[in-house]
Amino acid sequence: MSANPFETDLDRNAANYQPLTPLAHLARAAYVYPDHTAIIHGDMRMDYRTFYNRSRQLASSLADRGIGKGDTVSVMLSNTPAMLEAHHGVPMTGAVLHSFNTRLDAAVIAFQLDHAETKILIVDREFSAVMAEALAIADVDPLVIDYDDPEFGVDTPFSKGDRIGTENYEAFLTAGDPDFEWTWPADEWDSISLNYTSGTTGNPKGVVYHHRGASLMGYSNVVAAGMGRFPVYLWTLPMFHCNGWCFPWTLGVVAGTHVCLRWVRAKAMYDAIADHGVTHLCGAPIVMSTLLNAPEDDKRDFDQTVSFNTAAAPPPERVLEQMADAGFEVVHLYGLTETYGPAVVNEWHREWDKLDKPVRTGLKARQGVRYNALEDLVVLDPDTMEPVPGDGETIGEVMFRGNIVMKGYLKNPKASAEAFAGGWFHSGDLGVMHPDGYIQLKDRSKDIIISGGENISSIEVEDALYKHAAVQAAAVVAKPDDKWGETPCAFIELKPGQTADAEELISHCRSLLAHFKCPRHVVFQEIPKTSTGKIQKFVLREAAKAL
């Protein structure tokens, strides 16, 4: 048999193959648009030439301290220029960037420091107290660098903590070489970042990303968010969360401008949108609520339509209408830490705008279809690993396959093997496949309520509650019941100035749902949320048990 001519003398070489890396996005933007504004932070403006040079300076200084491939550099930073520089400067050395959730307690921080084997730690002084406590109980002894944010300000409920490091970030960075020849990854499978899951049961798991996935997310984010050249992006999403859904690397693709936002406050958001011409932002529904419910004195008029990417439960139709009236176009995304953030988008067909409102609402409630960089998205029976019927009713587990799925969990082969069983990443989310190939979540596997042998989707009950005009936030969990096993229990936050009682809300749900699906108990309280705006249902489940 003759050799395949297309596989003969056509070998991969340095001229025709280079590993993908998101670091190339910044390098190109600095080469093509060196004078374009890359970062805005308060009164500070930084162009792409400076952004690229400072990232190389940081890499140079880290390399001078022995940082290289296989090392971990941890940061506890707000959405500041230093965080953007870390996203580039750390991997420029071949090292891995580990970003801390800034709301963590000392014990969890200490666990992550040790598990990640942190060599160098950069800490914003707002978080120095809890970090000092964590370092005191951690086994590792990293070089600690203090970051002083010049825009911290004095008119704030927060205060700077003591210096806990031996060096200052600005001095450390500027000692480096702006012409440093940074390290292109030898293999695009090389690790670029480490992100820990929330760890609501046991210790958190360390999710590892590679250069290939982060690079491809840059292109996919541009497409999913509808970004043209020179977008202006407001940092309402924490950069520590899935590396800010990879947007720190994405904006270099289209030479976008990062508008840093240290604290998510309504007035600051409206000022940034109006003053800087913000075109895009990302966030949980709580950010939408903050914008919509802001005092009139905090709001500003603006001419542009702002694309708002959200990746939690689908916003109710009423909220979407309010956002549109306020100048925002909501793009619904879905993903997990293990998929580099969003990997599914509700691709909207313009002809759907002409459909009746109930039909439109149903379409908007769906999570959607795979990202361009994701190779496959399915709903499978987790026991048989066979696809469920595409009937929009049969529930299975949502599973992913592709280049924007994590490498695995750091030092946890058992958890990695379980997550990748059968050649698919198991999300733990339960959903259905619609006839047109769009998926829709029904619940997390642990959040399904089984009452009298019937499965009840907490998302379905929450959606009904959100249709009540007085409800600002709703969360439904299982409450143990001697007769039924479990029954739905609703936790409710009412809008300011609105009133409603339990009987009214239960009656409202009964007008929309089968009676067995309706809450038996309604609790009015502030709903606990994570730093990224996700409702902490594990806290509510414990509260429901105690009722």
List the helices and strands and how they pair.
Layout: H1 23-32, E1 37-41, E2 44-47, H2 48-64, E3 72-76, H3 81-89, E4 96-99, H4 106-116, E5 118-124, H5 128-137, E6 143-147, E7 167-168, H6 169-174, E8 191-196, E9 206-210, H7 211-224, E10 232-234, H8 242-245, H9 247-250, E11 257-259, H10 266-276, E12 280-282, H11 285-292, E13 306-310, H12 317-325, E14 328-336, E15 341-345, H13 357-364, E16 369-370, E17 374-380, E18 396-402, E19 408-409, H14 413-419, E20 425-433, E21 439-444, E22 449-451, E23 454-456, H15 458-466, E24 471-481, E25 485-494, H16 502-510, E26 521-524, H17 537-546
Parallel strand pairs: 1-11, 3-4, 3-5, 4-8, 5-6, 6-7, 10-11, 10-12, 12-13, 13-14, 25-26
Antiparallel strand pairs: 1-2, 8-9, 9-19, 14-15, 15-16, 17-18, 18-20, 20-21, 22-23, 24-25
Helix pairs in contact: 1-2, 2-3, 4-5
Structure in a nutshell:
Helices cover 29% and strands 25% of the residues. By secondary structure, the chain is an alpha/beta fold. The protein folds into 3 domains: 45-210, Rossmann fold; 264-444, ANL, N-terminal domain (Rossmann fold); 449-546, 2-Layer Sandwich (GMP Synthetase, Chain A, domain 3), CATH 3.30.300.30.
